[in-house]
User: What shape does this take?
Amino acid sequence: MTEWFYNIKTGEVEEGRQSLASDLDGPFATREDAANAPAIIAERARKWAAEDAKGD
Assistant: This one.
């Protein structure tokens, strides 16, 4: 199964691990998900922050 990564330094989608792990977000199941990584990650962060706020 192919894994896709979003390179946070270049803004490019990579098939498999081509760059340093510290430069990558992922893995994602599809190229499209990897391309949308910034939005997906921002949404996850908003959800986690909301959950944390409930616990305070």
About this structure: The chain has one domain: 4-55.
